[in-house]
Model the fold of this input.
Amino acid sequence: MKPLLTITERAAKKVRSLLEQQQKDCDEYGLRVYIEGGGCAGFQYKFDIDNKRREGDHIFECNGVKFFMDKKSTLYLAGSEVDYEETLMQSGFRVTNPNAASSCGCGVSFAM
Done:
């Protein structure tokens, strides 16, 4: 069985930093990782700071940070890896999704 979601240490460190900047308790808050319809390829990756469990959520901890994922997003993201990249041109969370048939050039949206 493939892991639900892999979070790199770099991504977890960035989430901890964001929580500290927003003065949010790391024991209560974490990162919600989900997908939405839209973007140039059909679906887009979304990330929000959250502390509320919703019905059907999968909540897990990775590298000392809490992550939330709804049931629908789990179907599309199972086995994916979330990393954080910082370059001269851009910075942000990046998803490597083995379930995606194709991705757009910006890496924010994908098709199944």
